[in-house]
Amino acid sequence: MAITRDEVANLARLARMALSGDELDHLAPQLDVILGSVARVAEVAAADIPPTSHAVPLTNVFRSDLIRPCLSQADALAGAPATEDGRFRVPRILDPED
Amino acid sequence: MTDLLHLSAAETAAAIARGETSAVEVTRAALERIEKVDESVHAFLHVAPDAALADARAVDERKAAGEPLGPLAGVPLALKDVFTARGMPTTCGSRILDGWYPPYDATVVAKLRAAGVITVGKANMDEFAMGSSTENSAYGPSRNPWDLTRIPGGSSGGSAAAVAAFETPLALGTDTGGSIRQPAAVCGLVGVKPTYGGVSRYGLVAFSSSLDQAGPLARTVNDAALLHAAIAGHDPMDSTSVEAAVPDVVGAARIADVTGLRIGVVKELTGPGFAPGVVARFSEAVDMLAALGADVVEVSCPHFEYALAAYYLIAPSECSSNLARFDAMRFGLRVGDAVGASGGEADAPGAEEVMSRTRGAGFGAEVKRRIILGTYALSSGYYDAYYGQAQKVRTLIGRDFAAAYETCDVLVSPTTPTVAFPLGERVDDPVAMYLTDLATIPSNLAGGPAMSLPAGLSDGLPVGFQIMAPAFADDRLYRVGAALEAALDVRRGHPLLDEAPVL
């Protein structure tokens, strides 16, 4: 199964990752080769095999509901690209016409 | 003080404990060595002389006050730049985290501090631990101390280069598909991926959460055991951390006896694709283990040949999800945030556009490849055929291991198909790069521990010998590794690293 340049562009949009035209030209054929090689998993007859999502089976890890120290506001904001009034400043989240 | 640099970690700590040297003196020697050779090796992205010397002084003061010191107190260490440590930047080898100072310590970093280990700096790595050569670092590759024109392996290549170049006796790395064992192999070191869940992942920037595991790189099996013991153990801050006793890896390294141990050579990990020189050193080491009293048998793990394919679906899928956190909002790079043409915010770029431009500018080619691949494998319509099927193959690989361990105590293989390749050779050939991890990936998928230790040289470059064990039987790696290391050192007359060119 081939993956096209348009499909790669769409996946990049879904992943919120801007790719230039040159990057798309370069990545699309590489991804096609990678996909061709990983598609080998289909050769294994595994219809009745349960999937493994995790190497060591662990379920429902609980801890006591205790108050613990957390990051201070200053520490939490220290690495932010922009702050305002002690908060994260973010670009507008609505389109102008919304 | 070249002599200080060539001591093992255990000898270094012992010399400090006996008062023959001090933690400050040892740390100064490491910092001077870094100053001297790191321009050509490029093992470090950040060196922290002031913090390191302050930590060293604290160890010396504790000793002066008569406090008992641990077996690694005062020993310098290179910390892979994927772990958070306060006071130092954490970049993960990525532009997107350029200059980011984390507000908390990883659990392993806290444990290292408690053990008196001196973190001298942050080691270079492939961006977000994706790669086998450090060539995917946004800050330029590290170089193999055995041959500066060749790769030091990856993704923990800076960690390996630092130890092999005698900059530090210890380093911490992470292993998602071989990223500790492969650099250890190509740099002539001991590297261990502990059992998944054995070492806390809190403060380890996640690449593939069900596979990532932190572990030691060192010049001797004993040093690796000491570092393993220092970082392992249950951590309530990591919900995948396992509440089980840490296997006695240090005791096992002391036993160093394979008499009666059943060792399985994995048929699927020695055949075509493995260089003749690698297979030759591997076979000699197997013969040596047999001569030491082990029962060597051949075992078949028929699904291992699909491990690479399953891994390159599972790891990118998890990565595409994990790396969604780099959204330009709370930390790291932000690109394209500006006022609009009107001078106000109404027509300024929105959050989605800023996010997209930031990720486009901040991620390198390999990270982009994997995010796209993972996004594809998780897409509706493809999920069952790719991600779902890969998870089933993962089950079958686990069953192959379980069947093999019914007749064997450990399994062995060459660590990598070839010795270190020249920088640049595979940089734009992803599939060729991925093949480097052929023999290391099965252990990540099944969760069991695995070690690489030096078996000798081929064409003047180190060859790695891999030992794999069942989950939570990490001690077996050290028992076998220490026996083989001792026998190889006796036959050679010296440790392998003595043959590395002097830098």
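Chain A has a mean pLDDT of 91.
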